[in-house]
Amino acid sequence: MTQPLLIVDALVKHFRLEPRGLFEAPPLLRAVDGISFSVKRGETLGLVGESGCGKSTTARLILRLIEPTSGSVALDGVDVLACSKKELMALRREMQIVFQDPLSSLNPRMSVGTSIGEPLRFHGLADQVERFDRAREYLEVVGLSADYYDRLPHEFSGGQNQRVAVARALILQPKLLILDEPVSALDVSIRAQILRLLSDLQGQFQLTYVFISHDLSVVKRFCDRIAVLYLGKIVEIAESETLYREPLHPYSQALIRAIPEVKVDGPRASSLSGLEGDVPSPVNPPTGCRFHTRCPHKMPICSEQEPPLKDMGDGHQVACFLH
Amino acid sequence: MKEPILRVENLKTQFKLRVGILKAVDGISFDLYPGRVLGIVGESGSGKSVTAQSIMRLIEPPGRVVEGRILYRDRDLLALSETEMEKLRGDRIGMIFQDPMTSLNPVFTIGDQIGETVVAHQGVTKNVARKRAVELLRLVGIPEPEKRLDDYPHQFSGGMRQRALIAIAIACEPEILIADEPTTALDVTIQAQILRLLADLQKKLGSAMILITHDLGVVSLMADDVLVMYSGRMVELGDVATIFHRPQHPYTIGLLSSIIRLDEPKNSELRSIPGLPQIPINPPPGCAFKARCIRALPICGERDPPPIKTPTGSIVACHAVEADIGARMPVPA
């Protein structure tokens, strides 16, 4: 078996917050608290979870947009965290990110064509004429017309701007593309257009994706494997079909049950089974299993010890004392 | 069926912009019945929120309601004075907005903000209002409401803030509840809690509810009737089962097939509607959906399709559907 493209090992990011009082220690926000996973070449791994679970922090750590507290990230055998600044520059060409809101990630005063060619300029890879040609080429790659080169982002819809953001990420021909909620800001009728584009591009350019989303129906449809995060920890990883057919962790089960699926004749909203309570703060996460405060199957051990991620066969891993 | 509690007739709301006139709501009509939930669905810019704000008379310049009637108990809300409208707002008509952080005042306690509504509309003393606030917080599922009453909004989580807003909206047991994307800003497990709460309260109070959302799953679980909007126009109106099982307008059909369903295999085709929605600034004549429509006819670029009643009982504004049915049956007024 070939080596996975991306290996994330025991990654931790604690943010130190402002101290509340003069004599108090500054509180620690445990955004990402020891997560490990790997992504095979050509695979799409989904990271799902609710706000504050650490999914976007994980993305930024992989790209080293922020420095981790501890742990390691390896892209194609290269240790991302041990790189010098210069090596990191070279490495960033191999991994790119697309954010949720294309309007705020594109320069409003720069034509979309210039934006798309900008990474080439930044990395010193092409002169002006070449950049123009390549940007026009990539406009077409993402399904836009090359004649849109001089348009400004505000002349485009959300879906079109998201295509521009994808083109800008792809022009460096990266191996890994991190997609951080790429369709969450888009309308239903447009969402599928972008997902289809991403899926076509993956085949065309042999891309590996890390797909971050809070929308489980999108993740299930788009990803090969899914990691479910809760308060900075992975609680379950499985093939996407397996996760939806037989989720093992009570949190994964609750997440899936809470999806408002289109249902007209069946039981209605009063029967929606949500989880009780709120997500606790990552500043003072619960002891033991972090989910025990909301878990319907809580046992005494759950508040005392942290459940390790256990292999259930076929790469299905779960961190829960029930298993 | 009972008499409608709210009757919206040919509502038109426009915004005068430098680049032209934005016809945000362009001829919407529907009836809202007591005890029933009307879901208004549509994508961003379809005019669903402006419809709600027009009913509440919250449209501010450069926006203006230019035409139509909004009849509540035989009174036209558009003809009321601001003072009369203020009496209805928050009392007979409650409203819940999307973002619970910006609709609560950060410098007043939760208890004060609930109490304020009760004092304003029921003329009770502060003490009585405080007791009522505790009851309301309990009703919306805030644990230990006596203790939480004096908390400020920032001490509440997102889900709890939305519960507090719901408490304010139902404080005077309104006959009409308008909820504009009430769960869009919330996480999915919290969304499920809030939807369940809204459904329970609506039943308990027997209110009529207008639920505005872009999420078709939410509508299918909550609504009795559904109004589909596109580019400020009414596209289709009918009961929830008819809209979801026998949609007729090409836009409704396209929208429903764009839903990503959990039970579909990973590699099955993802469907979408080709093209982009148009922003209705100085819109050309004809159907707003024609450029994206797979059934567009020459007439669609010439005349606005009138709403017609179809054999399934729903009301559809589409020339192609009209041609299917053959004989034209205008909507009874």
Brief descriptors of the model:
heterodimer; A: 323 residues; alpha/beta; Rossmann fold; eight-stranded mixed sheet; four-stranded antiparallel sheet; 10 helices; globular; B: 333 residues; 2 domains; 12 strands
Could you write a compact summary of the structure shown?
In chain A, 30% of the residues lie in helices and 21% in strands. Chain A is of the alpha/beta class and 323 residues long.
General description of the model:
The complex is a heterodimer of chains A (323) and B (333). Chain A is of the alpha/beta class. In chain A, 30% of the residues lie in helices and 21% in strands. An eight-stranded mixed sheet of chain A has the order 6-7-8-3-9-10-12-11, sandwiched between helices. In chain A, β4 and β5 form a beta hairpin. In chain A, α4 packs across α5 (128-141), α4 packs parallel to α6 and α5 (128-141) crosses α6 (158-170). Chain A starts with 5 loop residues before the first strand and ends in a 5-residue tail after the last strand. The model of chain A has no long low-confidence stretch (mean pLDDT 91). By secondary structure, chain B is of the alpha/beta class. In chain B, the strands form two sheets. An eight-stranded mixed sheet of chain B has the order 6-7-8-3-9-10-12-11, sandwiched between helices. The longest helix of chain B is centred in the middle third of the chain and has 18 residues, at 188-205. Chain B is globular. Classes of the chains: A alpha/beta (323), B alpha/beta (333). Chains A and B meet through α7, α8, α9 and α10 of A and α7, α8, α9, α10 and α11 of B.
